[in-house]
Write a structure and sequence with these properties.
The chain has 235 residues and is of the alpha/beta class. It has one domain: Metallo-beta-lactamase, Chain A, CATH 3.60.15.10. The protein has 6 helices and 16 strands. The strands form 3 sheets. Strands 6-5-4-3-2-1-16 form a 7-stranded mixed beta sheet, covered by helices on one side. Strands 7-8-11-12-13-14-15 form a 7-stranded mixed beta sheet, with helices on one face. Strands 9-10 form a two-stranded antiparallel sheet. Helix 5 packs across helix 6. The N and C termini lie close together (9 Å).
Amino acid sequence: MDLKGVELTWLGHAAARLRLGDGTTILIDPWLSGNPACPEDEHAQPKVDAIYLTHGHFDHFGQTIEVAKSTGAQVFCIHEISLYLESQGVENVVGSNKGGMVEGPAGIRAFLTNAVHSSGISGDSGVVDGGEAGGWILDIPDGPTFYHAGDTALFGDMSLIKDLWSPDIAFLPIGGHFTMGPRMAGTAGKMLGVASVVPIHYGTFPILKGRPEDLEEASSAAFEVVRMEPGQTLT
């Protein structure tokens, strides 16, 4: 996997951190404390410049509010979640929607894509509207183009993601039950045309039964399956 100078850390489940050569630090779906797969020494994130949220479920929304308030990070998310975050006192929020482009720190261009999933936010008063679930294309200047699919089933328009953005590396859920499993993720990787897939959203709970070896079998060697341990960093 060619990261082109970007440091990648998998924080367990669907959470990931990207650190660019200039120190710009990005979190995707920062479920940290409460995440049984996230190492304890990663629960606190002292420096974060941007957070990209795919949807509102607790295992993705995670510590967005706490991290945003403590670090001043910009939060990029779908419009309905941006309204919720603002109501909770988060100040640096950029609401977007599918098909739009938002520019983040270090010139990162980000595009919110479709996902086939739900997105309610669980709050003290019940479930709050979280808009629609999505995924993120992160186009990093002089670096790779990442696609984080969030939670999704396989859908045919993944081929359009390939045509429009040609991602190099994809984070794809493989656990099954709530998302696609390894067989569908294998097809997704082929449709996306990526060189490498980092499997996510598996093993955190017993119900998420998909495993990287199953994805390797389903990939038919069309792409590299990059197995990471929670807390592991690649450069």
